[in-house]
Specification:
Strand order of the largest sheet: 5-1-6
Organism: Caldicellulosiruptor bescii (strain ATCC BAA-1888 / DSM 6725 / KCTC 15123 / Z-1320)
Number of strands: 6
Protein name: PqqD family protein
Largest sheet: 3 strands, antiparallel
Distance between the termini: 6 Å
Number of helices: 3
Length: 87
């Protein structure tokens, strides 16, 4: 399973989110996912953290959280805010 690692980018904090020096803006949840990637981390660790935070009650809720995290990780890669390490 690949791991994800932050790319160091300056950012500013705003009331409703974060604006990075490369022009990418993140809401608080996406920023939290980005923060999870300070050190190389795999997707399962991030999912576990969000399961603990939101305590999904149904399989559908769990699937939604997993899908949202995967989508966010892909957007963070596209925005050059994280990099994928490994396969």
């Amino acid at each position: 399973m690949p791991k994800y690692k932050q790319v160091k980018v300056d950012y500013r904090i705003f009331k409703n989110g974060y604006l990075f020096s490369n022009g990418i803006a993140l809401n608080k949840t996406a920023f939290e996912i980005w923060e999870c990637c300070r050190e190389p981390v795999d997707e399962n660790i991030i999912v576990k953290k969000f399961f603990e935070k939101y305590m999904p009650q149904s399989d559908e809720d769990k699937k939604m959280i997993i899908e949202d995290i995967k989508n966010c990780l892909n957007l963070l890669i596209e925005g050059n805010l994280i990099e994928r390490i490994g396969k």
